[in-house]
Amino acid sequence: MNTRPIYLDHQATTPLDENVLEAMLPFLTSEYGNPSSPHARGRTAARAIHTARRQVADLIAAESEPEIVFTSGATEANHLAILGAALAIRPSGGHIVTTAIEHRSVLAACRRLVDHHGYTLSHVDVDAYGLVHAADVAAALTPDTVLVSVMHANNEIGTIQRLTTIAGITAPRGVVLHTDAAQSAGCGLLDVAELGVDLASLSAHKLHGPQGIGALYVRGGTRITALQTGGGQEHGLRAGTPNVPAIVGFGAAAHLITTDAVPPPTRTRALRDRLQSRLLAALPGATVNGHPHRRLQGNLSLTLPGIEAQDLLDRLPGIAATTGSACSTGSGEPSHVLRAIGLTPDQARATVRLSISRTTTETDIDQAADLISRAARTLRPALADSA
Ligand code: PMP
Q: For ligand 1, what atom is nearest to the CA of residue 75?
């Protein structure tokens, strides 16, 4: 019998694909060369990085490999994008625009520009679905604006932004557009040319690659300065000996997606929809957060009025899920994303995030729906009568 909890926390991290592990293993064992070394082992490592760079470029339809800069993850990519691009354009006194629902790493990087570089910062609000409106971005721009950062897909409510429309506002004004695409890159949704973004942050562990590796896409010609200097690696934009096994794993994970070697996002969507309809039927009063259609296929953010989400999860040892995003749980504060879409603090605290991926099975979904419904009814017995 499987005693491990049903894993419904894929927006926090995804399990490593076994093909990815296989691709990485030689670089954790026999192929230990430093890619900067001028001998056979070094050249093998350098070639492997070159391949991975191409594979990641293909995942997001980047034009050329040098547009991919490997980092330790999306947190670092967000910092490199926001601080690196803003400071390259204007060392102090500029203005940046971001949104009310960004990941904390984006908000923190923006904050740094304010606290240490004399920048001003505007936060654009979102509507009740979590959508940013291009007109609001346009209204926030000033003659000093150097950069706009709008996430592609939200990590709590899954809403996918209309970046192309926002690029229509920033590009003609010469304002750099950055997107945190950590959540969407694995869904076949990210085409940087189509979206019109200049910078995009990626993370391998959200797409069945290893943790601790990510990348920043830097459109050719975008001005950007390194935050970490030294050995000149990554075209001078991120010094430090590259994490070769992780980079190889990132490339392999991207390749599985671009070559359709893994179940398609439509399968994940069907499973998510099944979980959603079963829970909505069993728990009257429950509501779904995020946009009804423009939403990540694996995301289900549910508000269960009258129930403390943490109490619910405490009663569900058989399910691995979170109340908000994994990064902000533990802070004790109701999620800033849920608050931004208009939920009250009580509603925010009554919200669970269930996130699924290609490794989720129909049995997982049916068992999870039963377990969650039963636990919710013990916390709010009235549900048992009305269901
Ligand atoms: N941005 C978003 C939208 C995320 O979901 C995450 C991961 N929680 C990050 C950034 C940070 O990514 P990483 O763990 O690779 O630093």
A: 16
Residues forming a β-bridge with 98: 123
d(CA 304, CA 265) in angstroms, rounded, equals 27
With respect to residue 59, please indicate whether it lies within any of the assigned structural domains: yes
CB atoms within 10 A of CB 230: 11
Active-site option among 88, 89, 121, 327:
327
Q: pLDDT digit string (tens) for 330-351?
A: 566 889 999 999 999 999 999 9
Amino acid at position 273, single letter: D
Distance of alpha carbon 126 from the chain centroid = 18
Cα distance between residue 33 and residue 46, in whole Å? 9
HSE-up of 133 (CA within 13 Å, CB side)? 8
Has 110 been annotated as catalytic? no
Count CB-CB contacts under 10 A for residue 142.
Answer: 10
Q: Is the CB of 355 under 6 A from ligand 1?
A: no
Ligand 1 centroid, distance to 183 Cα (angstroms): 7
Note whether residue 223 is domain-resident.
yes
Average pLDDT for the chain: 95
186 lines ligand 1 (CB under 6 A): no
- Give 281-343 as a 3 state SS string: HHCCCCEEECCCCCECCCEEEEECCCCCHHHHHHCCCCEECECCCCCCCCCCCCCHHHHHCCC
* Percent of the chain residues past pLDDT 70, beyond the cut: 96
- β-partners of residue 203 are 214
Distances (CA, A) of 128 to 120, 125, 163, 284, 348: 26, 10, 18, 21, 13
Mutate to test the pocket of ligand 1, among 179, 203, 208 (most ligand atoms within 8 A of CB): 203
Per-residue pLDDT tens digits for 246-279: 999 999 999 999 999 999 999 999 999 999 999 9
Kindly report the CATH number assigned to the domain that includes residue 135: 3.40.640.10
Does one domain contain both 92 and 190?
yes
Other beta carbons within 10 Å of 265 = 18
Residue 328 structural domain: 6-15+263-386
Which pLDDT score, from 0 to 100, does residue 2 have? 54
Q: What is the pLDDT of residue 382?
A: 66
